[in-house]
Amino acid sequence: MAYMLSAKGRRGQLTRAAEALKCQRSYLSRVISENLQLTPDHAFQLANFWKLPQDHSEYFRTLVEFERAGNPDFRRHLKDSLSKMKAKHESVQERTSRTGLSVDALKLNYFSSWISSAVHFLTSVPEYQSVKALSLRLGIKPEYVLKHLQSLQTQGFVEEKNDLWIYKAGEFHAPKDSPLVILHHQNWRNRAIQDAQDPENGNVHFTIVQTLSREDFERLKELMLQFISECTEIAGPSKPEEGIAMTCDLFRV
Questions:
Q1: Checking CA distances to 188, which of 29, 32, 46, 212 falls within 20 to 30 Å?
Q2: CB 174 within 8 A of CB 186
Q3: What is the sign of the dihedral through the CA atoms of 73, 75, 81 and 83?
Q4: Domain region containing 151
Q5: Could you tell me if residue 182 is inside a domain?
Q6: Do residues 107 and 50 both lie within one domain?
């Protein structure tokens, strides 16, 4: 809340928020700097003033209710509700609206290497729908490409038409509790390391280690989750012309 109302670069927000809530500016200043809580009515109005999405608004209002609550049982109930809302909000599967598949449905060999998913999604690009084109693009033997295509066909992810292999389905997300998701992360991060060895390929690789406040860590995490959502919205309707891989990492050291 303090960031939204008084952070650097947000000059005038405190005054405008006070006008929207029809309250004194000094009241909001005390809420930021002292142990003074918003009323439920003001929390609702402030969420509307910020134009928060419904889930963000619900979380903010529940957080205010938690801070105001005096009954221990009620506080535990609200804390549990906040934890569930936060977990749902931070779920990439929820934010990208992708189907989560069970271990059986994922077919273990799909995640055995980066090649299966690379071959799978490149078949959505017309110029990479032949075994030869995929072999040249990925730098692997044609017979190995064919092996992966046949496996993908068995799973219903691609189909063969007139010696061309065409993308059919497979917009799914491996849940973070799946034993295969770690393998998927590892495969593509290893592939990213290989790509980073060519400094002239025009790709982007970035790694940084630094310190910051716990509050700012949460802000960075939210920015990354929002970025993932926006990437999905852009890529969904985008014309298939290029195959890419994007890996995002943000974690406490």
A1: 212
A2: no
A3: negative
A4: 103-235
A5: yes
A6: no
* 62, 38: one domain: yes
pLDDT band at residue 103 using 50, 70 and 90 as cut-offs: very low
Q: How many domains does the chain have?
A: 2
Whole-number Å distance between alpha carbons of 32 and 230: 31
- pLDDT on residue 11: 62
Which is it for strands 164-167 and 158-161: parallel, antiparallel or unpaired?
antiparallel
CB 42 within 8 A of CB 23: yes
| Residues 137, 143, 145, 146, CA torsion sign | positive
Decide if pLDDT at 138 tops 90. yes
Which residue is associated with the tokens 């809580």?
37
Among all chains, which residue has been given the structure tokens 């017979």?
A: 143
In this structure, the answer to whether residues 181 and 157 fall within a common structural domain is: yes
In this structure, the answer to whether residues 113 and 160 fall within a common structural domain is yes
Q: What is the 3 state secondary structure string of the chain?
A: CHHHHHCCCCCCHHHHHHHHHCCCHHHHHHHHHCCCCCCHHHHHHHHHHHCCCHHHHHHHHHHHHHHHCCCHHHHHHHHHHHHHHHHHHHCHHHHHCCEECCHHHHCHHHHCCHHHHHHHHHCCCHHHCCHHHHHHHHCCCHHHHHHHHHHHHHCCCEEEECCEEEECCCCEECCCCCCCHHHHHHHHHHHHHHHHCCCCCCCCCCCCCCCCCHHHHHHHHHHHHHHHHHHHHHHCCCCCCCCCCCCCCCCCC
- Is 251 inside any structural domain? no
Neighbouring residues of 25: CB distance < 8 A, sequence distance ≥ 6: 14, 15, 18
pLDDT at 93 over 70: no
